[in-house]
Amino acid sequence: MPDVDVFGALANPVRRQLLEALRDGPLPAGELAGRFALSRPAVSEHLAVLRHARLVSEEPRGRHRYYHLAADPLAEVSDWLHPFEHFWRERLKALRDVAEGEDL
């Protein structure tokens, strides 16, 4: 499998959920697979995409494979989103102004 674009890897909700599961530390592949109503091979394919996008790394420990979150490629996403922060800040400020002006 060739290198996968970070944005393409993040486009799938299962892959985003896998990354969320790894936020608190490494987990074995079996435990990750157990969190989804998917077959183990399907979860394994998602993990392979994340590996090729360099979003996770794989560490063999005996008979198990542990997956670690690799946050560096997420900096690319942050860098891309940064110019849009002003837009969202303005939108959220407008929403706050409307909400605070309403009698709730």
TrEMBL record:
Q: Which residues form the HTH arsR-type domain?
A: 1-92
CDD domains per the UniProt record, alphabetical = HTH_ARSR
Matching SMART domains: HTH_ARSR
The record's section on InterPro entries has:
ArsR-like_HTH, HTH_ArsR_DNA-bd_dom, HTH_MetalResp_TranReg, WH-like_DNA-bd_sf, WH_DNA-bd_sf
Pfam families from the entry?
Answer: HTH_5
Q: Write out the entry's keywords from A to Z.
A: DNA-binding, Transcription, Transcription regulation
Q: Which residues cross the membrane?
A: none
Q: Which NCBIfam families match?
A: HTH_metalloreg
Protein name, per record? Winged helix-turn-helix transcriptional regulator
Q: Which organism is it from?
A: Paractinoplanes lichenicola
